[in-house]
Specification:
78% helix, globular, mainly alpha, 6 helices
Length: 218
């Protein structure tokens, strides 16, 4: 692992320890009250979910057209993170919605497209696990579809009726709310980078070990 990994991991851990204190000191939202504070984890996890889908799609495209095994491992790692952060997003969202809007779930455009994007990531992993020969390229095609869905998820609230606020809300937050939000987002970004790097490293070590076994058998 690179030398920067340990200090960044420590910094990330400290930020997650400190984040509840910042969130607790943030003011209540006027209409939703305490439950709105789940937003400080929900929004960063949703951002990382979309970023993971983009990374998976780009790496898959580079693998399809360049044949790089490293890019295939990057795509696989990113797909796992898309599933992980997608679960956090899809759990915290309904918890917030139930208290704020009185419903667990609505089949609006953002919720439906987000669920579809998460299912694509799950399908990617299932294909890689059980698809047999050629599953790497088939899964890469799924990743491209998942990446194409990302802009649709983001802009959907601006063009269709939804219970979600428009994308213009976050930049207008007061400093007392914006500071803990960007702090949490930074912590999630660091966590994403660390987990992605670790999973790629593990897959590369597994590939080296497999190559060693093959050389011994020969």
């Amino acid at each position: 692992m690179p030398k920067w990994y340990t200090p960044v991991a420590i910094a990330c851990g400290l930020m997650f320890v400190a984040s509840p204190l910042l969130i607790a000191n943030a003011p209540y939202e006027a209409t939703m009250g305490l439950v709105q504070k789940i937003f400080y984890y929900h929004m960063p996890s949703a951002v990382m979910f979309l970023v993971a889908a983009i990374v998976c799609g780009i790496a898959s495209a580079r693998y399809l057209f360049g044949g790089s095994p490293h890019q295939d491992r990057v795509a696989w790692a990113a797909a796992e993170l898309a599933v992980l952060f997608g679960i956090i997003t899809l759990v915290t969202g309904p918890l917030w919605a139930r208290k704020a809007w009185g419903v667990w779930w609505q089949w609006d455009v953002r919720l439906t497209s987000s669920l579809m994007g998460w299912m694509v990531a799950v399908a990617y992993l299932l294909v890689r696990r059980y698809g047999g020969p050629g599953s790497d390229k088939l899964a890469a095609g799924l990743a491209l579809f998942g990446m194409a869905n990302v802009p649709f998820i983001y802009i959907s609230v601006n063009y269709w009726r939804t219970i979600h606020p428009a994308t213009s809300v976050v930049p207008t937050l007061p400093v007392s709310m914006g500071l803990p939000l960007w702090f949490c987002l930074t912590a999630f970004v660091l966590l994403f980078v660390l987990l992605l790097k670790l999973r790629i490293y593990l897959e590369e070590e597994r590939a080296r070990l497999d190559a060693l076994y093959l050389s011994i058998e020969e």
